[in-house]
Amino acid sequence: MSERHPILITGAAGHIGGVSRTIVDMLLEQGHPVRAFVRQDDERARALRQAGAEVFVGDLLTIADVTAAMKGVRRIYFSMSLSPYYTDAVSLMAAAARAQGDIEVFVNMSEFEQSFMTFEKMTAPEEERRSWLGGLVADWSPQQRAHWIAERVLEWAGLPTVNIRAAMFVENPLMTWLALGPLSNGELRLPFGSHRLAPIAGHDVAEVCAKILADPAPHISKSYELNGPELKDMHGFAEDFGAVLGREVTYVPEEVETWNDTYVDPALAEFPHTAEHMKTLTRLIGGGGYRGVTDQLQTLLGHPPKTVRWALENHPRIQKPAAA
Fold first, then answer.
1. Stretch (H or E) spanning 13
2. Which Pfam families does the record associate with it (predicted)?
3. Among 170, 169, 320, which residue's Cα sits nearest to residue 245?
4. Whether 36 contacts 57, CB under 8 Å
5. Which of these, 132, 226, 279, 289, has the minimum number of CB atoms within 10 Å of its CB?
């Protein structure tokens, strides 16, 4: 790739270890030029410059900024925090990419729910949808709907898109900082009953995205559904937490709505869109509607994926109580 064509990474000002920031670091280490799109010129932006990235400061909801950020770019990674304006942002990015006309790849960070969030399922009668989704919810969250629309927009725009439909991250708040209080008492309190999950380490998602951005041709027009390597119930996760924290941890199942009232609502009272997404996710998982496991992750990586225990050991919010 010519040095004249930097790879555009949105969401790059996320914390160290976040997917976008890890992609930046991986691409820079491989010698690729990177343009990091950030919202504010703060210490995180300065850290990106020190790492070797070009930093573009702008607003994903301002098409003039998006168009300027894309100038000279051929490869794009799009990610954005949970937001009621998510669909607006991806649509503006798609419009700018389509207008520019020479994009080689648009890597879209989607979500695993899109693997079963089909038009047929979404338009089925309510009781059929509720049964399919595990019985505790009859519809998807506004954020999940936004990802569905985002995939359609990119398809309609005719862009060379790759959708990364990653399963729930090990680093998801449901598994980490929302659970920290009970963990201090040796309890993993979650509303997931006996259901099994295969969450994915953010590091592996970043590595897959970096590989695609570095060599996009084999991946164009594909959607990858990625799970972690370990399918286990919450008792298994409690063992992982115990090993990382150096103390015995016991899984204590909670009723879904009680857990949402106790943990999600107080923590996310100022972010209703995010709260609604998290509560929908707990209902999907707690009802058994979050289904499906694939082996695509290891195939794309070319080596065994990171374990849950590795991801917990390398998570800043878990490292602190572990050190204590």
1. none
2. NAD_binding_10
3. 320
4. no
5. 132
Rounded-to-integer distance, Cα 85 and Cα 87, Å: 6
pLDDT class of 1 with cuts at 50, 70, 90 = very low
For residue 307, give both structure tokens.
């374990």
Q: Which of 6, 225, 221, 27 is nearest to 107 (CA)?
A: 221
Residues across the chain: 324
Say if residue 322's pLDDT is above 70.
no
Report the alpha-carbon distance of residue 275 to residue 297 in Å, rounded. 29
pLDDT in tens, 207-247: 999 999 999 999 999 999 999 999 999 999 999 999 999 99
- Report the percent of the chain where pLDDT is more than 90: 89
Burial (CB count <10 Å: 0-12, 13-18, 19+), residue 242: middle
Instruction: Supply 241's token pair.
Output: 């937490």
41 CA to centre of own chain:
24
**Would you say 174 and 281 are in contact if contact means Cβ atoms under 8 Å apart?**
yes
Q: Tally the C-alpha atoms within 13 A of residue 257's C-alpha that lie toward its C-beta.
A: 2
Condensed to tens digits (0 to 9), the pLDDT of residues 108-142 reads 999 999 999 999 999 999 999 999 999 999 999 99
Q: Hey, is 222 helix, strand or coil?
A: coil
Whether the CB-CB separation of 1 and 32 falls below 8 Å is answered with yes
| The pair of three-digit structure tokens given for residue 224, joined into one six-digit string | 């990858």
- Nearest 5°: CA angle at 237, between 225 and 12? 50
Question: How many CB atoms lie under 10 A from the CB of residue 202?
Answer: 24
Residue 65's pLDDT is what? 98
> Which tokens hold the place of 117?
């969030």
Q: How far apart are CA 99 and CA 212, in angstroms?
A: 23
Distance CA 6, CA 26 (A): 14
SS3 category, 126 = helix
